[in-house]
Amino acid sequence: MNANEPAFVANNLAQPNPSAQPWLRLWPGVVILVLQWLIILVPAWIAPVTMAHFMGWMLGSIVGAIALLIWWLFASRLRWADRVICVLVFGVAAAAMLLFCHPSLGVFGLILHALPIATTAWVLWLLVTPSLSWQPRRAGLLIVISLAWAAFILVRMDGVDGSLSSAFSFRWSPTPEEHFLNELASGKSAHAPAVDAQLATLAPVTAEPRPDDWPGFRGAARDGRVIGVKIATDWNQHPPRQLWRHAVGPGWSSFAVVGPRLFTQEQRGEEEAVVCYEVNSGTELWAHRDAARFSEPLAGPGPRATPTFHNGKIYALGAAGKLNCLDAVTGKVLWSRDIAADAGAKVPTWGFSASPLVVQGIVTVFAGGPAGKSVLGYKASSGEPAWSAGEGQLSYCSLQPAMLDGVEQLIVSTDRGLSAFQPIGGNVLWCYNWPVDKMYRVVQPTLVGDSDVLIGTGMGLGTRRLHVRHDGNAWAAQEVWNTLSIKPYYNDMVVHRNYIYGFDTDLLTCIDLNDGKRKWKAKGYGNGQVLLLADQDMLLVLSEKGEVALVETNPESHVQKAKFQALEGKTWNHPVIAHGKLFVRNGAEAACYSLAEDSGPGQ
Predict the structure, then answer these.
(1) What digits encode the pLDDT tens for the residues 69-92?
(2) Rounded to whole angstroms, how far apart are CA atoms 457 and 445?
(3) Residue 101 DSSP code
């Protein structure tokens, strides 16, 4: 033993049988392991849900494993046979895990989850067994390494939450989707076909939505504002009353509500489905299915976009790029397009997510194609291509209708920044350049008055307020302020009485609209979604765990008025209020709650 080596190595980490085996130099392995976990965990603590968080996780796992192998092969002082056999077992076990693991893990699971566990098991075994002779210690090490990898063959990854924390289940346990498909096959409950008598009692579909309808993503104006509605806010005296609750297929679509009909999208095995339910009972009225399945490890399977109602028709975009126009009463296909083929675009990492927008007879979606095919416009009546324009290729946003400086336009956030288009011809009116290299934007641009726009960006980049004006054909979008106090990931924001309410990663926050400074922030909702009850100065917050809360739009402090558990499990879908009812869903179930009306000061 080198006299300069630390005493704790000599006393605690050395191989006790020098006649059988050279002294094991373990302290570099311990240092590497500690550094590996610091690289993985510290960015997640100080900069959650940013590129630093993700890259720390990725690099910590990979670089830590490489450093450990270098130490073992060239600085452990063991016999070469022992060094090589351990590395071979480590590699063979990793390959077996990758070959036999559940598809939800794959290379992603190997690198981010299995690799740091396997390296940790390796070092910890050696650290706790200094009293063993080398042969059983080596045999135990080979077994521990193999078991660490084998454990990941037994599980599946059920996605991640908004903080990038992964959920695991035993791979043989039924998934919520499998439970749902069994229920669907049995013809039980809400998914039994509606009978003619039920259909005959439904009110006819009007050409245009009524004031209390909710015709698409985030409402008629796509701003998450509920106007002309007052609900009871004392939920101790007048709690929301559950009308129905049942399983649905996975997906992150929200709802469109028109009269007695409720529209959403689901994954049903190997088919994507646009589904129409009856509002009061949740009974399935019809389902249009396409042979398509999209799934990825982080969010799981299913369509992402919300159907849009317009002029008696439903427009829905599937995660793989199928754009359908359906009769709202029957679900009959009126026309279909493949936007991936039309735009020459690949299916994005997290699927096509744009909820179709219909303005002036043109239905538009973000496609992300090259050479001026970022956004596609189709004739709403026939599906015939009308125009294509724009350069952004990464976005999970929908087109946003806007009236800026007196001119009607469509705006969208992409990896390039913010772009505005004429609804009819698709001419690009203006662009605000805020590139995010190889990244994406998810939240909708938020309109402020008739001349300003908020563009929010996750991964730690923040939010900017822009002032838009024009002189003839010359447009300009000028930054008013930027802030890191609200960094929305996929959580859309609302504006009320000169304040912004939304999520700074997993913190519900209030921001002064004048200068972008934070007024308050609050935990407890995860990465949730927000509706604004504008007539009551109240927020309805749907938490990431399926809780529904009422929070005052109070810029001085966070005041929660009430809260109840509406759903179980990870909930990313936007809530809806229409016809005096609250509609919520996630990737496993949907529910409807009747909301009592506000009865004034006494309630």
Answers:
(1) 999 999 999 999 999 999 999 999
(2) 10
(3) S
Under 8 Å CB-to-CB from 524, ≥6 apart: which residues?
508, 543, 549, 560
Please give the angle made by the CA atoms of 471, 477 and 479, to the nearest 5 degrees. 140
> What are the residues facing 387 on neighbouring strands?
377
Closest CA to 373 of 336, 341, 403: 341
Helix/strand/coil (H/E/C) assignment for every residue in 339-372: HHHHHCCCCCCCCCCCCCEEECCEEEEEEEECCC
CA 398 from chain centre, in angstroms, equals 14
Q: Looking at 22-26, 226-230, 345-349, 568-572, which range is the least confident one?
A: 22-26
Chain segment 459-475, per-residue pLDDT in tens: 889 999 999 999 999 99
User: What mean pLDDT do residues 29-57 have?
Assistant: 93
Distance (Å, rounded) from C-alpha 92 to C-alpha 94? Answer: 5
Quick check: 465 and 459 in contact, CB under 8 A? Answer: no
Question: Model-level pTM?
Answer: 0.91
Q: What phi and psi values does residue 108 have, to the nearest 5 degrees? A: -60, -50
Cα 381 → chain centroid: 32
Helix %, strand %, coil % for the chain, to 5?
A: 25, 35, 40
